[in-house]
Amino acid sequence: MKLNLNTLILFVQDVDKLKRFYVDILHFEIVEEAKSAWLLLKAGNCNIGLHKIGEEYLDNSKGEFKFDNNVKMVFEVDEDINKVREHLLKKDVFMKEIKTFDNYTTLICDGEDPEGNVFQLQQKKN
User: What is the model's pTM?
Assistant: First the structure.
């Protein structure tokens, strides 16, 4: 059996807020949309779905929603990772420092979307 990842679905509180992030800032293409409830985005070889989480799972008493999960999306960048990071910082995106490891073939930099979903930028070293 051979499986190919087609779509990664994130359950989110505010689809519209994340639409602005993933479409306006990261420039992903909209594949399909159900206003404020569902958004399917083309992200290279894989789609990302943003699915509104059910009200029964939300706790509005805790202030602004930040999701704590164990998933990290990794995006390869084909331009200078330093410039991409600086561009995102100017858009008020939370970004960590660029780093690498011994015998590692890429530069990496983690960031977070507005609801705390972690993503990583990755650029091959020259």
Answer: 0.86
For residue 41, give its domain range: 1-54
Q: How far apart are CA 91 and CA 68, in angstroms?
A: 22
Find tokens 């970004």 and name the residue.
Answer: 95
**pLDDT 10s digits, 75-114:** 999 999 999 999 999 999 999 999 999 999 999 999 999 9
Q: How far apart are CA 105 and CA 36, in angstroms?
A: 40
Angle at the Cα of 16 from the Cα atoms of 13 and 22, rounded to 5 degrees:
100
Distance in angstroms (rounded) separating the CA atoms of residues 112 and 23: 15
Instruction: Please report, for the domain that includes residue 1, its CATH number.
Output: 3.10.180.10
